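Risk register update: the risk of archive-format incompatibility is retired. Evidence:
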Amino acid sequence: MAGARLDSTGVVKMKTLDEALLLLQRINGLVEQYALAVKRNQPATVFVMNIRRQLPSLAENLKAQFGLISDQITGVNLAASRGSSEAMRVRTLREGVAQVKQSLEIAMTQTKDKHAVHEEKAKPATDD
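Archived output:
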């Protein structure tokens, strides 16, 4: 049987991606709370400020190894700060979070493919 595992660089990258995915899930929760507050006509500025505070830290965590994803997160943060209606901002944030999640999942798949180390178990020697 053959087994596949990651080399040390792959392990570090996967750890970074896992942490980023957890932070992105937290941000997604904030976006959904923001959407509910907007729908109920409640004050929502607290959610916007919290989201805009979390996005740069996510981008910074990914900057060293995944610069394009980091730039994408920065773009979502900028789009969230544009002066538009609340409904438009919710839609922009939801689409941005979905795009970043998709990018992270693609990066995980590519990391697994690029950094896989295949090991084969030694077969017992047979005497003929």
